[in-house]
Amino acid sequence: MSETTSLAEIREFASRLSPWAHLATVGADNEPDVVPVHPCWEGDICWIMTGTGSVKANNIADNSKVALHWQVTEVGDGVELWGTGQIFDDAETKRRLWTGVFDYDLNDFAPGGPDDSPGTGFLAVTPTRALLLKHYGVNGAHRWSA
Q: DSSP label at 71?
């Protein structure tokens, strides 16, 4: 059975799953790329720290469509999310996100902090639709769309 849900429920459910998700992007060659990421939410935007010259950043420059799949729990609960991505590397965004949004220390990956970390940026995923599955969908599928 499929039911509708809110983006707030999707965010809350995803936050209880693994901190890891897999991000899918499509490059200029029209080939998919999938990479593990550690996404965090700020309101309705899902943020991912990334290198501005990374494959994912380059792919998003060519095609802004993205998908995320949170690692499924041992009981089969999971979240899939589709949306559009945009890379931000401006100082204001970096300073805002550097503390209080992510649940890990960004300085471990960019020791220069928000003001001295060239090549470091953030991917903002604006969700367009999502699917919350309980026990691989056997115990319910909940859909959200913008």
A: P
